[in-house]
What we know:
Blueprint: H1 18-43, H2 55-77, H3 83-89, H4 99-118, H5 127-144, H6 164-172, H7 180-200, E1 208-215, E2 221-228, E3 248-255, E4 259-262, E5 268-271, E6 279-288, E7 291-294, H8 297-319, H9 325-344, H10 349-371, H11 377-384
Antiparallel strand pairs: 1-2, 2-3, 3-6, 4-5, 6-7
Amino acid sequence: MTGRISFSSPFEDWGMTLLLHRERVNQLIHLYGESVRRFFREQQRSRQFSPLFNLPGRLIIGSYCYYEHMYALLQRICQRVTPEQLGMRMKRLGGLPNYINLNSLLLGYFNGRQQAILRGEARDDDPRELAFILDFWTRVVRAYRNDRKLLPDEAGFTIPILPPRAVGEVAACLHSDYSDDERRWIRRTIATIELFTFVLNGEARVGVFHHGPYALSGGDQLIIKELVGLQEDFYSWTGKGTRLPYANIIRAMRVHNLRLRFDLFGTLRTEPREYEGLIRAQNVFTFCDGIIQPLSIHQMRATAERAGDIQITLYRTFMEWSDRQRIEYGAELYANLLRAFGDLAGLDGEFHQEVRARFRETTMRHIEALVEGEPPLILQHIAETEGPIYYPLRCP
Length: 396
């Protein structure tokens, strides 16, 4: 799509219906905050530790970048496409952005805002800014999900995004005749490449996305596990030498008698926890140019070996980083999640440069305080408060 379009938001007449819009904005802030509370506490995210990276510092610097710049950057995107168009374009296999990117927008923005509030350094809220961001998120999500819900919490902890035709195509390519050795190789390969995505993204789980379930005949269910961003080159620590042969690798599984729970960021929990024996049929493939391309065991093994070699190279790079770099890389991580929406909207490398420049400016203003020990108050707040995770509108 080329040219500029008009982005019409139901919040544009803010001055006329201030009370109504304030109530709706606060409802959405609370709704999302409760989902964040559940996600962080169930997975103990506030207590995560890494010997290589400053995870709390990474979160704070990325969140400050979103809090200060996301409004302007989303406006740029919405000059090219509507939120509904973005949501419809996201309804595909192995693509970016996905639900992780989408929910990371609000998580980063509201974490940055709340950290500033808790430090006594927050600016007054601009009601139009908050309304715009929440309206963007709401409209993209409702176009993206099949059920028009906003959060897994509202929909039995499910993430249904694929159109029926895509579900049928995936189900038709599944096989039940793998040998025991082949099943073990599939499991091992997927685990190796999953670890690769974790390392590639600086110990962030943004490269693994589960969605579903999708109903199949006989009471079976289809679940999809996507490993994405495998040819990432946006980060300063990536390039041709850190790319796998495929942009995505997808494992599709037909299961029965398995209780499934998909969380806010596409992590799958099952009951029973070990479900390999309950997989009736499966396939591993890459999705490129609208075509499912199954991968042979040989292709999977070669890709896993390549992933393992790259991990070693990346670890060596990260081990040489300074304390400052172990924090400031969070700006690149968050920038990458956001710029994917620009890519989907058809914006070129100029948008990448704008994101980088804006986030670099924020990083330069905050990095020294974080290196010197600015406490991640937002993490303690999420872990312990019984009140609202994110405060309602704060404006004069």
